[in-house]
What we know:
The complex is a heterodimer of chains A (310) and B (274).
Chain A: E1 7-18, E2 21-32, E3 36-40, H1 47-55, E4 62-67, H2 76-82, E5 83-86, H3 98-108, H4 113-122, H5 138-149, E6 156-160, H6 168-183, E7 187-192, H7 195-198, E8 204-209, E9 212-217, H8 219-226, E10 231-236, E11 251-257, E12 259-264, H9 270-279, E13 284-290, H10 294-305
Parallel strand pairs in A: 3-7, 3-8, 5-6, 6-7
Antiparallel strand pairs in A: 1-2, 1-4, 8-9, 10-12, 10-13, 11-12
Chain B: H1 3-19, H2 21-48, H3 53-59, H4 78-90, H5 94-117, H6 119-124, H7 130-163, H8 176-203, H9 207-234, H10 238-261
Amino acid sequence: MTSAMDSAIRFGTVSxxxxxxxxxxSLTFAAPAGAVTVLLGxxxxxxxxxxxxxxxxxxxxxxxxxxxxxHPKINGDEVRRRVGIVPPKPxxxxxxxxxxxxxxxxxxxxxxxxxxxxAAERFSIQDALLQEVGGYSTGMRTRLALARAVIHDPEVLLxxxxxxxxxxxxxxxxxxxxxxxxxxxxxxxxxxxxxxxAEGIADQLVLMNNGxxxxxxxPQALAGQYLTxxxxxxxxxxxxxxxxxxxxxxxxxxxxxxxVQVTLDDLNRLPDLVTRLVNGGARLTRVEPIGATLEQLYxxxxxxxxxxxx
Amino acid sequence: MxxxxxxxxxxxxxxxxxxxxxxxxxxxxxxxLFFVLMPLLALSVIGMLANTAxxxxxxxxxxxxxxxxxxSLPVDDPAAQAAYLIAVYMLAPIAIIVPLTISVAxxxxxxxxxxxxxxGEFLAHSPLTMKEIYFGKLLASLVPxxxxxxxxxxxxxxxxxxxxxxxxxxxxxxTSGWILLIILVIPPVIAIAIALVLRMSARMRSAAxxxxxxxxxxxxxxxxxxxxxVRVISAPGPSAFLIGAIAWAIALFLAVRGAGxxxxxxxxxxxxxx
Lengths: 310, 274
């Protein structure tokens, strides 16, 4: 976990309840400055509450929150001035035009109309600005929400399920825009329950469930921690020659989904395994050690936290 | 408090209101009914009753005229006297009913509406203070009601002068009492109602519930302010200024207190669950 000095956002044993519902329970994590932190978890994991606590829109019952070195409970207005947010299902004044909505945001964030127009252009929504937002598609609303969120050039950007309800093309385009923002050195916190969305974008991963962080760290570090057994994809012209793979020394498990996915106890066993298969008559067409996917990591972490053996 | 933020909130709300025809057309109809059609009907009927037994009965109303305004009444035409009384005194409540109804309707939806639309989430995460949001909403509710009152008052003056004026020797409306009422008393009375209704709007779970609750608030205010309007119209002197000053003081107290009680999380719709 990153030190507090490098963290744009730091949660220390933060709890928040709504009546009898514990939305966030002893949540501890840090979002490094200038990196993309993905809060990953199922619906109801506490991701939205975490975002709301970050800006001070909600006040924690217990624990300590620091955003850009400030405490949202005490310096909420200053925090909110330096943070941009795209809420889930972004809402606007639908009877007003996109431009009216952006201009309003510019005014309350003490930005200017030039910045509003720049933001609209950055997210390719400028041609629709004179239309009423009520007539916008979901994708257009998301683009307008992104433009609105960066109108004041925030140091931290909080994106809560930004691709919810989008078609795959718009979703991909939004993720590219997020990558672009990350490339500009902004601190980004992305909440999602979609594993593919976090894949390749996360510098830091916080796995949330039932209001607390089950695991946090860089994906590679987490993979090293949770996925200790290497995976190799194998295939052969004569697949029946691979039939007894699970009996081979060092093979932990074999999965037959399209190609053959073999989990080994040690990657150093691979050369010997290949030799034995070839000597046994297998005409191998594929031998590919693969890096862990986020999906594997996610389910492995979930399994580890349920106390199940791999 | 940043007044530009307050104006921004008020501006976006009023712009939205102006664009919602299904919202402001009924309110304009209400204003037209109370400020133009009802007075026109009432004063025309009175005019037609001249020289009838009923006119003689109406003349009895003259007895109840406050002493300080009676010299201005034409004494030899009972129907004209009755028309004058109706124009100046009996229709006075319209000056309070119309703006209150309009402003309360706007205010009751002001906070809960943000929550229901989801736009409250954006406001909650913005650097706006709760005071700025509250006063912006107060302004956005006060201005439409008061503007319609000013326009309605001008139309009412026209109706009254055209129907009653010829019978009493010329245009006589607005009287000084009505001018003081419109300038000094109506705005703070509306502000009092809005200050109370905004707090309800922040607490209620739905716009419908807020609308219901706000009618409970506006009814006693209408009753109290009816007494005030009659008093101000009949005795437009220092007491009118005093009533205005007290009403403003109450409005300010309620507004400041209301703003202080606002919670950011109410914009998100979670405070009621805590």
